[in-house]
Description:
about 250 residues, alpha/beta, Ubiquitin-like (UB roll), 5-stranded mixed sheet
Amino acid sequence: MKSATFRFYAELNDFLPKERRSRDVPFAFDVSPSVKDVIESFGVPHTEVDVILVDGLSVDFAHRIGNGDRVGVYPVFETFDVSPLVRLRPQPLRVTRFVLDGHLGRLARLLRIAGFDTLYNPAFSKEELVRASRDEERLLLTRDVGLLKRSELTRAYYIRSTERQDQLEEVVDRFDLRRQLRPFTRCPRCNGRLERAARADIEHLVEHGTLSSFDDFWRCDSCGQPYWKGAHQEGLNRLLERLARRDEI
């Protein structure tokens, strides 16, 4: 029986049981497996991994593990220059766009309010989610670890938080999206773009009291839904302003 030693770093430990976190973990085998297969056998999705070092040398997912190998597995690097190493993810998307699984509807709404192109349909199958991520170059957000292990996926992320505002902050922080925030430019309901609307264009769609209480209106260019700055606006503004200022702290 052959063996190798694995160590997972930083947030990759989120996928491991406590007894395996931030320490050397042995892996026994007969026939040399690919490093990707071993990593996912530990429960870590390949979409979360950016760099793999085997005995100090950078390798790709197809590399075969040998007897006595020491393997370091690293998450996406946001601040360090790792250009000499084999990056296992595609280059970052020029404009970040998302597709979310059916369990993240509240996060989808907040991402749209923040101005991000966000595809969401609770009826999407796993195959449709993967296809949208691959064909439309969208970052898949999910809390389904099994989905992240699909070999066709290259752009995906496991959401750690369970509260929607925390989830939004997690995504913005993780992918450094503050400069891409464009609040109140997309329809929370359908993802269409919001455009200024004259009072006469939406008066048949809203209550008379709303017309008399507000001066500024917007309308979705896709579904036609009207919007105005209602009572909920103040709370949303505080959330988005806090996100925009986090890099100044």
